[in-house]
Specification:
Structural class: mainly alpha
Helix content: 55-70%
Order of helices and strands: EEHH
Strand content: 5-15%
Oligomer: single chain
């Protein structure tokens, strides 16, 4: 069994579409330990899942759906950046 290598985020993944050109507003920071980044992504996904469940019970409100969408976008960016960091480390 091999010991896990200490990979970090490269800081290239972006999230948060804005304006008519669909530019990305935010970027992940480089140098974050992948284990810590994935833990944060898990927390964000847990919040998004809770919001989608609550949103399914609401009628006529899109607030929780949009909140879940933004949390999912952030979690995806973290996972994408971690994946790039792990690929570049090999």
């Amino acid at each position: 069994m091999t010991a896990p290598h200490a990979s970090t985020t490269p800081g290239v993944a972006t999230f948060g579409n804005c304006n008519l050109q669909n530019q990305r507003l935010f970027r992940l920071n480089p140098g974050i330990c992948v284990e810590q980044a994935l833990e944060h992504a898990s927390v964000l996904m847990g919040c998004a899942n809770t919001l989608t469940r609550l949103g399914g019970l609401e009628e006529g409100s899109s607030t929780t759906a949009w909140a879940a969408h933004y949390l999912g976008d952030m979690a995806k960016a973290i996972i994408d950046d971690v994946t790039l960091g792990m690929q570049n480390h090999d």
